[in-house]
Predict the 3D structure of the following.
Amino acid sequence: MIHVPDAVAARFAAEGERTYPAECCGVLLGRLEPGATEGCDRRYASAILPVDNARTDRAGDRFVITPEAYLKAEAAADAQGLELLGFYHSHPDDQARPSDYDRDHAWPNLSYIVMAVQGQGDGTGRTTGWASWELAADRSAFRPEPLIEGGLHG
Amino acid sequence: MAKLSIPTALRAYTERQAKVDADGATVGAALAALADRYPDLRPHLFDEAGELRGFVNVFVGDTNIRSLAGLATPVTPDSVVALVPAIAGGLR
């Protein structure tokens, strides 16, 4: 389960619009309560850390966060007394649900926020929805992660 | 012996420990000792042939071991060995 304050959702939604028609990506930081609810982790997002999409050759439909960027993100989390809770990325002109490629490259025990950013016909994009997903421990499925509270999602 | 830095994604398998000391004179030996201590972690680090999985990066200090001697890279008690998951995805 994850709690995403409206202000945090607004920040990653803006990132999706800023990078449109390329995918944006970044890190979710916050507080983690492991196994707080019936064995499920409870995550409280409080900040994002935008990361440059390193997949510059296919930024329209792929993203990569380099190991160096990942290490910087964990260091930033430590410095702020926060935990790395997961990642966000956008799907330009598509749905807020993970692709097979997303599932194949995901890790369990993290939140994956996917947002839909739709082109407005003038070269800009608008974030029309988002949802958080969790990979099953045996990698068999990417399941919607219940939201404790949130702004726009779907 | 080396100090291993465990990424958030794998701390569920290390009793939430972010730093774990592991015996071994090389990165490979230290990771093997880690996997012996936390058996549920093993399949996330090594494939059936015992090779390090492609979506796990290992850094000694600031350097990826793929630029060093791989799993044979020597470590000392002062070495900080960071496990770093590869993070990728996308629409297609």
Q: What stands out?
A: Chain B is about 15% helix and 25% strand. The first strand of chain B starts at residue 2 and ends at 5.
